[in-house]
Structures are given as C-alpha cells and as structure tokens.
Design goal:
CATH topology of the largest domain: Beta-Lactamase
Shape: rod-shaped
Strand content: 25-35%
Structural class: alpha+beta
Number of helices: 7
Radius of gyration: 35 Å
CATH architecture of the largest domain: 2-Layer Sandwich
Strand order of the largest sheet: 2-1-5-4-3
CATH class of the largest domain: Alpha Beta
Helix content: 40-55%
Number of strands: 10
Length: 314
Amino acid sequence: MGATALFLVSYRFQASLIHVSEEKRLRNQYQYFLKDIDFKTKMAMSLAHLVARNPDIAEAFAKRNRQQLIDLLHPAYQTLHDGFGIEQFHFHIPPATSFLRLHALDEYGESMEAYRHTINRAKETATGVGGLERGVFGFGIRSVVPVFHEEKQVGTVEFGLSFEEPLLEEFKNNYGSDLTLYIRQKPGVNRPAVFASTLDKALLPIELFNRAFDTGEVVFHTTKLNNRDIAIIAGPVRDFSLKIVAVVEISVDRSSTLALLKRYGTIATVIGLAGLALSISFVWLISVIFTRRIEEVVQAADEIAAGHRDARIA
C-alpha cells in the first residue's frame, strides 16, 4: 500500500510539473508574439521618421508632387517589400485623405478620417503614432509620422506591415507553434471570425474567446486535433489605443509531452512493482527465519515437558 501510494503521489506530481512547464512555455510564446508586434511597430516608426525628415521628400510632398515622390521612393518601397515585409508605404494630406500609396499607385483620393485614427492622432499631436489598426487593406501593424516643411505640417507618412498569415508563418517558423487570430463578428453572430491562421480548423471554444476578449485574461486549454493532443493558450491583442481588437491562439502538439509522461509512468510502475516484490520477499524471509526459531523453541519445550531433562532451548 505504501509503495502504491508513493507511486500515485509521484506520478501526479510529475504530471502537474509537466503541465505547469507546458503552460509556462506557451505563456512565454504569447509574450514573444506581443513583443514581435511591438518590434515591427518600432521598425515601421523608424522608417517613417527617416522619410519624414528627408528634406527632398518633404518638399515634394509639400508641393503635392506625386510623380516626384514615386520617382524618389518607389524603388526603395520595392526593396523594403521584397526583403523586409513592408506592405504599406502611404502619404496622407489633411484631414486624413490618401495622397499616395506606393503599394497601390492607382488608389488614392479617398477620405479616411472616419476610421484611420492613427492618422488623426498623429496630425493632432504632431508626433508619431504606431500599433495595430484596421485600414482599407485590413488589419496592419502601422506607424504614422507627421511630415513638416518649412516648420509647417504638410501631412503624414505611414509604413505598415502584415498582421495576417505572413506574420503567423514567420512566428511558426521561429517557434514551431501554430497560431490563429480571432476577431469579434457583428452583434448577433455567436462565433468569432478567424482573421488569419496557420491551421485549417479553429480550436478555441467560444467561451474562452469571450473570456480573453472581454476581460483581457490569458487562458490555457487542452483539446484534440486529428487524434493529436493539443495544448492551447489564448490571449488578447490590443491596438494602438490599447483597445482589445483580437485574440491570438497559440497551439502546440502535446504528443511528445504525454509520451514522456507515459514513459515516466511505465518506469515508475516497474520500479514500484520491483520494490513491492523486494518488500514481499524480505517479509517472507524474515517470517521464515522467525517461524523456524519459534518451532525449535516449541519443540524443545515439548521435550522438557515429556521428561527429557537433557533437552535445551538454544
């Protein structure tokens, strides 16, 4: 009983330890994901500041010379797009009107004041603003910086990176985990929408999405996918204004972890059974020795009682 109890306690402790380690690993990956967004925001911000402070670019922008800006910057945009994942390179004029998209040269002129709040804030505060925001081309990691010419603000310039599959695939290649981004659908739609994913199937239960989205809680969960055991962590993703706009799900295959736990259980069982066998053998040996001794004492006592005075109890 003692050996069995020791085995059960040891096994449960090991299972708990592995579970805690697994959750810690996923929580760390969630933080890495948020830091990756922050790093890309700062990278976009540095590029926007570099462009905004170039006097030739500022002058061409102040004169609203689209062709000169294209000649100056389109080759650089192609290099940044192909080599560094820059998706948007965009100039805006007050109040928040598209002037030149180097990533879509024929699309300009529309007002974005109603929904591009990073542009509005950069214009109003005369400082750079960066973070997640939805635009015409979907969610992006965007940084917007005001452009000045002759000490007058003449507009803003923006760099943006993808917040869709390319970002998730890059993270998966670095850390070996699958990711899914969920956003809340329109009121009345119960299930969240998958915005981007490295998987073919959504794993996160609706109630866990709501907990993460509504409260900002980071939640841990285990499930199955194609007969494989999967561990999941889901946490909120915030935009430039710190408002929760999405939930990221990070998932890993638990097969190797559970195989390790099973192996430990097998080893512990063998050791426990071996210990039990040794205990039984020891008890049997001791009982045999004492039983023989008692039998000898009883036999000698019987002989003395029968009148054999020379009998001795050894």
